[in-house]
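Contributing new records

If you add data, match the layout below exactly. Sequence lines come first and carry their own label; structure lines follow with theirs. Keep one chain per record. Anything else will be rejected by the validation script.
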Amino acid sequence: MSENTTTSAPGSFRGLLLLAVANIRRDRLRTTLLLMTIALATLLFITSLASMAGMQAPVEAMLERQNASHLLISFDSRVYPPSRIIDWFRQHDRVERISPLMPNVLSNGRPMHAGKFFGDTLRLTERPLAEMQIDQLNFIAGEQRPYPAPGEIWLPTTVAKSGGLQIGDVLEIATDEGAVEYTLSAVVVDPQYSSGFNNPVRAWIAPGELAAIYTPRMLQNYQLGVRLKDVAEQDAIWQEFSSGFDGGFAGGHLSYQDTINSYSTLLKILAVMILIFGLMSLAVAVFIISSTISGVILANYRTFGVLKSLGYTPGNVGAIFQIQFLLMSLVAVPLGIVGGWLVSKQLIAVMLDSIGSIDAALPFVAPGGATLVIMVGIIAVTAALAGRKAGQIKAASSIRFGAPEQGVKRHNPVRLTWARHLPLSLVIGLKNVASGGRRVI
């Protein structure tokens, strides 16, 4: 920063702007590094916010489109008579619809394809003969039919992709009667199980298929889907249902919110990790801003004294740094926001692939606006606090010494402990040389 950088009136915005721009141009390497750091922190910050906000809406849309159950109940018919459970929900005035009973059995291990195990234990479930009005399936590959043919199996998207399976592939599934072969005839979006986080994952087989491969004692487990008139009442209705049994209902149930969480859990974990890295990048940017301002103040100490002598107030001097870093943030933050939008779309697109959605409207105005305000605000406050030192410079001493007066005094080699042993004229002379070393040299 030179003393003739601007000829504008002291304290005018144009003068402050020219000084700020001169600071930006002077150290281009540091400026570039700071721009990249701010842009990276912004990108990570907004990616975290947009990812957490952008997943739930498309998942809810999928669940509504496929008329998903609000409660998916699993129970053992030896403990809970199916007729009692069906009658309770069928007679409840806040229940919209229930599904047919869906008999199911857990496989005796992981499925195998081409001699290799993949996925996890499967919940082999018979698709009802009657067309399902709730928990409908979205066919991603294969022929759409009401239920599989004997010897065929339908798998959710995540299971099929984890095993690299294609339509027509033959799977081996361990049962009580040994390994049974099934041909993959469809890959589907199953509302509750395509996330891959609700295990065991449900796989659909033909009606009556289980009786052919399992002993009767194994055919005791059922699932029942329940769709309510108002999903907000699911907790109250479940409590009412469960309280009708001594000790509460001991079977399993999967709520509507549990289903939503199963799709968004991984993305939320990633978003938190991204946010942590974003905060770390922001901390680095704040450190660079503070160290940059401190370096500029020390390198141009006398210049700031000249500015103070020309009529610049402490606020004017501090405003130079605020304007400088606000200009930089107005370049870096929008770049980070645009980059974060692109990254968020790609990240959410990968997650939505399991539910058959190629694209979804990404909520970006609110996260983008919040990120802009937060990032620019933090940078402005950091610049204002770090720039206060420049406003506290005393014009006379800075022009005289060209460095902080305390620093000059701190290096004074003259000590009163031994001055009494020297002539007074010599002590005064040595002190003047030490105190005004820069001028003497």
